[in-house]
Every structure is written in C-alpha cells, then in structure tokens.
Amino acid sequence: MLERAREIEQQLIDWRREFHMHPELGFQETRTAARVAEVLEPLGYRVRTGVGRTGVVAERGRGSPIVAIRADMDALPLQEANDVSYASQNPGVMHACGHDAHTAIALGVATLLAQEDLPGAVRFLFQPAEEVADDEGVSGAPRMIEDGAMDGVDGLLALHVDASVPVGDVTVDAGPSSAGVDSFHATVVGQGGHGSTPHKVVDPIHIAGHVILALNGIVSRRIDPFDQAVISVGSIHGGNADNVIPGHVDITGTIRYMEPEVQKQTHAEIERAFEIARVMGGDYELEIEIGYPPAFNAAGIVDLQREVAADLLGEEHVRTPEESMGAEDFGFFSKLAPGAMFMLGCRIEGDERRHHSPRFDVDERCLPIGVAILAEAALRFLRRGDSHHA
Fold first, then answer.
1. Which DSSP category does 108 fall into?
2. I need a surface site. Which of 14, 74, 240, 377 has the fewest CB within 10 A?
3. Which pLDDT band, with edges at 50, 70 and 90, does 70 fall under?
4. What are phi and psi of 164, to 5 degrees?
5. Do 328 and 158 contact (CB within 8 A), yes or no?
6. What residues have CB less than 8 Å from 320, skipping those under 6 apart?
7. Do residues 14 and 367 make contact, with C-beta atoms less than 8 angstroms apart?
8. CB 294 within 8 A of CB 324
9. Residues 74, 29: contact at Cβ < 8 Å?
10. How would residue 347 be classed by pLDDT, with cut points 50, 70 and 90?
C-alpha cells in the first residue's frame, strides 16, 4: 500500500498545495468542498455536499461494516509569512494547522480504495469548522452528525499531522487523545473615576488582579493533583487613558479537562474566583461557554493503527505521543463509534514550523505515509469485521 501511495505522491502534493493556496475559514469551505466532490465523483463515490453546512460525505461499497475516515478542511485567520510558490492567496487566511494536508491525504485514500473490492463500505467525512463554532456555538463535527454523517458507522479512523515528529514516524496511544475545552467570558464591574482619587472609585483593575490570582490558583490548590486540568487567562481589557480608572475590565480564558467531574469543578471554582469582585465592593458578569468534549482513542482501533504502521514503517517508527491538553472536536465523532486519531510526523528538519503560526508548513513526504496507513487500516477493518475492534 505504501508503494501504491508513493506512486501518486505528486498528485497528493498538487492537491495539498492547491488547498494551501486557497484556504477557507470554518463554515466557508465552499471552494474546497466543491473540489473534493469533483475528485471523488469520477472515482465512483456516492457524494453528498452541504453536510453540516459546508462538509462533504462520500461513500463507496455496500452493507456493513462501515468504516469512516475523517478529514477536517478549514483554515485559520492568520496572514501567511512563508515565501513559497504555494503561499495563501487569501489575505489574512492560512492553512496553519495542516488541514490542507489532511484533505489531500483523504483524497489519496479514496483514490486507492476505489481500486479495491470492499467487503462493506468506506465513508469519508470531509469536515468543516474544526477550529471554530457557528453563531450557536456549534462546530463542524456535531453539525455533520446532525445531518447523518455518522449513521451506521462501525469504526472511525483519523490522523493529524504533527510538526514536532519527524517524517516516517507516527505516534498513537489508547485513551485520552485530546482534552475537553470550554471558555469563559467575564466582566469585572467597578465604578470608574479619575486616577488621582482612587479612594473615590471602585477600581475594577485592582479587583481583576485578585480575581486572576484566584483563577491561577484553582488548578494548584483546588483540583486533585491526580486530575488533569488547565485554566488560562487569554485576554484582559480595561481602560483607555492613563489617568482614568475604568468602570469595568473584561477577562476571557480557556478551560481544559479530561473528566466530566473535573469540568464541573473548574466551572464552580471559576465562579467562586469571580465572587471576589463582590467581596471587594464591585460586581461581575460571567459566561462559561461549553466547547468540545474530550476525545478518547478506542483500544481496538489503536491496535489496528499501530499494527498497520509497524508493518509499513517498522515498529521502531511507531511511538507513544507526549501527553497534551490540546483540543479539537473529533470527540463528537468518537463518542458514536470506536475511533482513534494517530499523529503523522511532518517535521521540516532543522526548521520546525509550529502549528497555528504564520510560518507553519509540512514536509510533504509525509503525505503518502498518511495515505498508506489509513487505506490499509480501513481495508483490514472491513476484512476482519467490526466485532474485531469493539
């Protein structure tokens, strides 16, 4: 399978660079989706567009089991800083997380599996808006689920490029693969006035300082040390003049967790931290926005991915990933069927390009490796039947 994937390597590169040149933000992936459908329909796939607003579902084969392969398509609101021929042509928008590579890899998998007699069905989920939510706070995965994308799926395969891992290596492990993530938006309310008479005002900046100290103490002093949690303040805004004490200060931040009980506790502790504002004579408004659930890699699917990767690359190139509290919405899918996401090494040696940075890029030699692992894993899943991976 790796040899077959390398035979189409130039096509994979061409697709990836095309998507990189024409990035689209979440729920705006109309050009990308149209291009994906244009490639898949001549291969004999039954293609549905407009799934989850701008997603694409493509299926080939009949009956069961059904194995799904997920690829996210959206880009980020960043201005690209790379001086390359395939740099983004959309000002202020860039594929800075590798979703262009994911889309190209999935098209490659579809190309190889179109040549197979499938004992069941393969379904591709080209997902919009992994990075963002719509005006109702809902991201692409649950929107696709609402439109039936996961109906009847027995197993789920996915990958994500990893710029910290060298090309030729993959990492995967059973259990938590990404954290749950919520966010908070708060206002510390005081009573503004002139900076020369602080005793006549209720200073929200002073109060906010105490609130932030309390927020930063939650994980170290309120959460069980054996539980995983992160609470980070991401923005503070208050005031416009150096001699005026403002009437309010806005604070936003992110919450990361692995277990529902910890999620509930962090929410309660954040509320408690902001109550300091009232103790100090001010007030507060707090909204906690529920985001993505944690994602868990199913042991059976992980075993399959590790087996395939070891067969294709050698056991020494299949490693356990470093633990991370990064988050994404794959967990919505993996709650509905056994699934796992492995990390595909794409590091540019000597010049690591970090995810979500204006200089992010991948070593394109990773593309056929990703194609081969997903295609072979999908085939083995179908040939063995879904009960093997329960």
1. H
2. 240
3. very high
4. -95, -5
5. no
6. 171, 172, 173
7. no
8. no
9. yes
10. very high
Could you tell me where the DSSP H helices lie in the chain? 2-7, 9-21, 30-40, 99-113, 140-146, 204-221, 260-274, 276-279, 299-313, 330-334, 366-384
What is the rounded CA–CA span in Å between residue 30 and residue 184?
31
Same domain, 72 and 215: no
Cis before 293 (ω within 30): no
Looking at the structure, tell me whether residues 155 and 103 fall in a common domain. yes
**CA-based max dimension of the chain:** 80
**Can 136 be counted among the known catalytic residues?**
no
> What CATH code is carried by the domain that includes residue 32?
3.40.630.10
Query: DSSP of 5-48, one letter per residue?
Result: HHHTHHHHHHHHHHHHHS---TT--HHHHHHHHHHHGGGT-EEE
Catalytic residue (one of 24, 257, 292, 328): 292
350 and 266 both lie in a single domain: no
Separation between Cα atoms, residue 114 and residue 108, nearest integer Å: 10
* Angle separating helix axes 99-113 and 9-21, nearest 10 degrees: 140
Last residue of a domain, one of 292, 319, 353: 292
Question: Domain limits at 211?
Answer: 180-292
Does residue 292 have an active-site annotation? yes
Please identify, among 245, 270, 292, the residue that sits at the C-terminal boundary of a domain: 292
The alpha-carbon radius of gyration of the chain (Å, integer) is: 23
User: Given 29, 130, 269, 364, which residue is catalytic?
Assistant: 364
Helix (H) or strand (E) holding 347, with range, is: strand 339-347
Is the pLDDT at 285 greater than 50? The verdict is yes
Q: Give burial (CB, 10 Å; 0-12/13-18/19+) of 257.
A: buried
Alpha helix stretches (DSSP H) within 284-390: 299-313, 330-334, 366-384
pLDDT band at 390 (very low <50, low <70, confident <90, very high): very low
